Amino acid sequence: MPSMNAQSLALRKKAKQQRSREKIELILQTTLDMLSEGQVDKINTNEIARRAGVSVGSLYNFFPNKQSILYELFRRWLENALTGLDDLDARYDGSEPIRDYIDDMFEQMAINAQANTAGHWQLRRSMNSSKELSELEEAHMDQILARFIRIQEKFGRQLPNNPHRLAYLQNLISVSCLNIVALTADEQERKTVMHWCKKLLYLVFDVERLEG
């Protein structure tokens, strides 16, 4: 049986780890909020620390520079998108109308505060400023295209000779739609934009109609 000292040490270690996790989340959320407000090149670690209410030294314990914060935000964003698609895929067996799937997919991603805010899109625009961010998105793109191709197969669609080209088009339109929704502040206008976007997605995910 552990001694009282060992138990106390374990509890203190657990509490410290929890505080560290909370600080990391605070730093990341603060940076995302700042991205929503302005240009990425105007953000620096000193200002992030000030806005987050932590010391610069504490920030550097977790992130060596601003770019590492952006990288972690971007990595999480992309991971969230893949997880969302996989969770959605598990709920469908392909016998349903593909429109039902598209409705769920778009609504799930468009209104998700963890995946579709102005800050996320400002972050995405910053990716070309870093080789690491660009490489991360390139790897993510391969995974997204594979999932979009699997959607076509699951719902019994006849794939074109070059399914990756179609999947790339589907991704471009999906990304553009999510972007415009995130940048539309008025609630009524956002509903209209989402309606337009769904119609575009219905078409681009329905190969037979697209080629007809």
Characterise this structure.
This protein is mostly helical and 212 residues long. It folds into two domains: 1-64, Arc Repressor Mutant, subunit A; 70-211, Orthogonal Bundle (Tetracycline Repressor, domain 2), CATH 1.10.357.10. The chain contains ten helices and no strands. It has helices at 4-37, 45-52, 56-62, 66-90, 98-110, 118-125, 131-154, 163-182, 187-204, 207-211. Helix 8 packs antiparallel against helix 9. The longest helix has 34 residues, at 4-37. The mean pLDDT is 87.
Characterize this entry briefly:
This protein is mainly alpha-helical and 212 residues long.
Largest sheet: none
Order of helices and strands: HHHHHHHHHH
What Rg is obtained from the alpha carbons, in whole angstroms? 21 Å
Helix content: over 70%
CATH superfamily of the largest domain: Tetracycline Repressor, domain 2
CATH fold descriptor of the largest domain:
Tetracycline Repressor, domain 2
Helix and strand topology:
Blueprint: H1 4-37, H2 45-52, H3 56-62, H4 66-90, H5 98-110, H6 118-125, H7 131-154, H8 163-182, H9 187-204, H10 207-211
Helix pairs in contact: 1-2, 1-4, 1-6, 4-5, 4-7, 5-9, 7-8, 8-9
